[in-house]
Amino acid sequence: FHRGYYIRARAVDHCVQDFLLKTQSHPGTQILSLGAGFDSLYFRLKDMGLLRHTVVYEMDFPDVARQKATLIKRMEELSALVGDTGGEGSGIITCSGEDYRLLGVDLSELSELERALEEAGLDTDIPTLFIAEVVLAYMDSSRSDALLRWAAERFPRACFLLYEQMHPGDPFGRVMQQHFSQLNSALRSLAQYPDCQAQQRRFLEKGWTECSVMDMNEFFTCCTPEDEQQRVQALEPFDEYEEWHLKCSHYFVLTASKGMEPPWTPLLPNMTVPRRGLVGMAGSIPAAACAAHSGSAGLRRYGHRSVLIKPNVILTTGGFGEEDGQHCRMRSFHVLIKHAGCWRAGCVKKESPDQRWDERLYHTVSCLSNSLALVVGGRTSPSRAGLGMLELKFPESCGALDPDDVTVEVVSLQPAAEPAALRWRHSTTEVMFKGEKYLFLYGGRSATEPVLGDWYFLHTPELSCTAIPVEGPVPESRHSHSACGWKGGVLVAGGLGAAEQPLGSVFFLREVEHGFQWQTVETHPPLIPRYSHTAHVHDEKLLLVGGVWFHSPSVPGVTVVDLMTGLCLDYAIDVEQLEWPLMLHNHSSVFLPNEKELMLIGGGGNCFSFGTHLNPKPVLLSLSDILMSH
């Protein structure tokens, strides 16, 4: 929430101050804030001394304008900035000062709007900036289009600043639209203008000659100075990267102008990032809800881990979800067991109810044997130190049991390697060196380090750190990456880097005579940078599932990388048979090699102010067609 509203205010301030700077040589300018609500922009600009020759007109529905006028008059500091408010204010003009007019008027009634502005002293011949922050989206397209055309025709020297939502059709966008519909504030123009390109065409067709637009991820990366980015990132404990980036990819800032010399271009980036158009999909994979029985409700969670502890038995631990009717960090474990072609879900019993689990998120789980798994790291709050290691012991016969009869014993550990485990969003992968098994612990983040690039080799019997030489180009530090075993080594793909930017690199850590060696895996076309995905290897093919990426109107599905040729193909997930938005970040996935199927478990998150979405059921993807086609 804090970052989301910060970036909105930052974008508006950036563009408004640029307009005031570029027009400071003019004897007079004006700002028209459409649907201003209780915005404090005028008071901030006035207090900063930036309105020396600018008049600000604010417009909103009459009852809103009257409430705001009352607030201003009650507060000495605000009324002093406005100056002479001309008594109580009456009719359309509810508050008036030397450089401030507050008007109660319906924006959709153009003749009424124009009459009100004339009465308030508007000068159509001087440079004018229109501001619409999440306003036009609530109007019928025909009325908002008429407003844009009127502004372009009526004002010879005009600029327009627009901030609002986009991408209504993807999972986050569907949750967003549902939220506004439930508030009886439907986003009326989103279907007609669903993305940046449509909005740009809209303005150019309505009489504006210059138009630039970018989503808020691009604005933060390219128009916000690096030191300011770092200041914001360090303000408070933060671990909601997926939600932040998805929110920013569903809002845009647009600037348009006409008759301005030189042209008004406040969105010129201080650095450039590659923009991607539509991702070329090689095909689609149908998704089907897993017909597990009633116990699958406990799998509605994110930030958890799921692992195939033996054929047809999947154990899910940790994460944030819904338990006993409340959203919370999950205390219960769940198991999916396949009997006679049908999956059944159930809640796992802990042998002792007080066994310490710590309700962790973003941990890893690695199977060490048919009856033993190792939990490494994870967190409760991002402001606290990461959690250490636990063993999970389960009966070898659990595959033959009813899911509700499976028991797990949680064993606290304090091995010598414990300090290495105090992290989250990392990976642990089994590797082989000189015939012995090790767990390769890599990357992640901690309470003090926002991104880690170190690694450890844990010798599994006694969980001690072993020094094994590693050569080759060291990968960039990262968390929320994927890592999976291949040929006794590890394939690391994607992740979020030090600047909170997704990475598109793939590395292979392979065994050599005296240790291991990092090698870069070249892909063509280049892998689209992503993070918060999952990964599996099957028949010399790396499968990347879901995640978050930037600057693309589509969402990640399944990407197949041929490890022999480097060919990289993206496949969309066909969700037509699902009755809910499928959010594939912070999820887990298990590859079932015999069936060539992927089981997707959980996923979702907090969708800004629109509510928390948790995928309600596990989902099965059949990969047999795409694996055969490679």
From TrEMBL:
Keyword NADP (UniProt): no
One Pfam family of this chain: Kelch_KLHDC2_KLHL20_DRC7
Family: Belongs to the methyltransferase superfamily. LCMT family.
Record keywords, A-Z: Methyltransferase, S-adenosyl-L-methionine, Transferase, tRNA processing
Catalytic reactions of this protein: 7-[(3S)-3-amino-3-carboxypropyl]wyosine(37) in tRNA(Phe) + S-adenosyl-L-methionine = 7-[(3S)-(3-amino-3-methoxycarbonyl)propyl]wyosine(37) in tRNA(Phe) + S-adenosyl-L-homocysteine; 7-[(3S)-(3-amino-3-methoxycarbonyl)propyl]wyosine(37) in tRNA(Phe) + S-adenosyl-L-methionine + CO2 = wybutosine(37) in tRNA(Phe) + S-adenosyl-L-homocysteine + 2 H(+)
Single GO molecular function: tRNA methyltransferase activity
UniProt superkingdom: Eukaryota
UniProt name for this protein: tRNA wybutosine-synthesizing protein 4
This enzyme's EC code(s): 2.1.1.290, 2.3.1.231
Annotated pathway: tRNA modification; wybutosine-tRNA(Phe) biosynthesis
Endpoints of the signal sequence: none
GO BP term, example: tRNA methylation
